[in-house]
Amino acid sequence: MSTTTTTAALPQRHQSKVDPQNVNRAVKSLLKWWDSKSKTENSESLENDGFVYLIVTLKRIPQLDRTNPLMIPLPHPLIDLVAEDPPELCLIIDDKHKNKITKEAALKKIEAEKIPITTVIKVSKLKSDLRKLEEEKRFELYFAERRLMPMLPKLLGKEFVKKNKTPIAINLRHGSWKEQIEKACESALFFVGTGTCSVVKVAKLSMGRKEIAENVVAAMNGIGDLVPGRWKNVKLFHLKLLESLALPVYQSVA
For the region Disordered, what residue ranges are annotated (predicted)? Predict the structure, then answer.
């Protein structure tokens, strides 16, 4: 099975099946719920990670590579690469292969080409270094050399994967590192699960209501256009926050 991340352009879109009014109503209700919850509960005990989630329910499980996500371009990226306080992004490299890229060479390339990676970890030191680094930093996204992907779940452990920290595969031998990394940071990442239901981060609560709704619509349209079977395979879309109820925003009529 190929381990190349799906970064192809979206197919030509036919008439959208998304009703922006349904999305706007759901976003408004979730923000109202969150505002009320924030005012009535102790902020320290209120669990929230700051994201808005799209729950995708398909009719059939697509036969896709589950180690790499479909990437859905968003009008308002979840990771701001030009922020005053730059995001922490981690790259895992294969230092065991005979044609390896050394950590020193990777760091030199990152600096020379202004690639937005803040930390490089060798796979041989992954278990020890990652645990220590995670205590010091909060990485927004992890990237890994493409050929490492089959072995990473075992090396990283179930808890790491459960926290939705699955690294994104990038090709360090061909193509632009910077373009591949920027593409992931500017997209909603749709990891296909082993069942028909998947959860996708599509927006941040720190965005305005209009920006959240625009991201949700873009993610729904992108998934409907990219998933095998396209819209015919999409059964339901729901929108939710970490602790909120899931509000329906699309239901297939077929």
Answer: 1-20
